[in-house]
Amino acid sequence: MSDAGDEVVHDFAPLIVVYKSGRIERPLDMPPVQPGTDAATGVVSRDVHISATSFVRLYLPPAGAGGGEKLPVVVYFHGGGFVIGSAASPAYHRCLNELAAACPAVAVSVDYRLAPEHPVPAAYEDSLAALNWVLSAADPWLAAHGDLSRVFLAGDSAGGNICHHLAMHRDLIRGSAGDQRRCLKGIILIHPWFWGKDPIGEEPRGAAAAAAGEQKGLWEFVCPDAADGADDPRINPTAAGAPGLENLACEKVMVCVADGDVLRWRGRAYAEAATRAMGSEPEVELFESEGVEHVFYLFEPAQEKAKELLRRIAAFVSGNAK
What we know:
single chain; 322 residues; alpha/beta; eight-stranded mixed β-sheet; 8 helices; 11 strands
């Protein structure tokens, strides 16, 4: 007879499984990797603890990158449905080494508290604290090599959601007071995790809508105080009554989607809404990868589609650097 404590009370495998006993399993969790010098790119990384509960991993390209000029700064937020992932995860460590070298840029990968131990908005709070730490230029790498007039936010899945959330709260971002309407150079949302009560585009409907239930259930699990469930503006930024995207504190927006991703319709809708709301002033770029699925580039970095995505992101950063 099985122990009652082994009863599963929340099953969002392979991200997270929660048992009645309180035991939590994260099947995709991988042992963390240490910072250092990346042999493939020459990028050097190190960790800085900015609070008792979170840290950032900084990435500095080789000397001479960018022609000796100060480099743009890319602040990256990992994905994982707010329940899994770390700035020290092997896939993200490799990705940030490649991104820092390709742009080139000083990259800052943010670690934040995870649900359910720390429900949303803990991830938002940690991410905002990390962004303000970056903008303070308290770290010598950022002070010496980073151009803080060219700060980009980037993130995949839940990390893309975080980018949107931060960019919508310029009143909380240090240094954004006065007439500095756009205090960030740009945001890059990679396969962002947005959802809503009513299906859009070709999202599954009726009996085929199991994926929709999973997205809604996971959001309400990580954010128990969600207002109006899956139409909470934090998960559905285009919901009726959500703050308008004209409030984004950035000059440029890039949205990346994958045509095999159930979230692609939300990413497209966000790009369309940003274009309508922000008018002709900013550039809104929608880039779609064909024949691939959600965050494919983290798991298959050597494939050409992943290399193409990296090139497009690097071009967005370097092209907006002047």
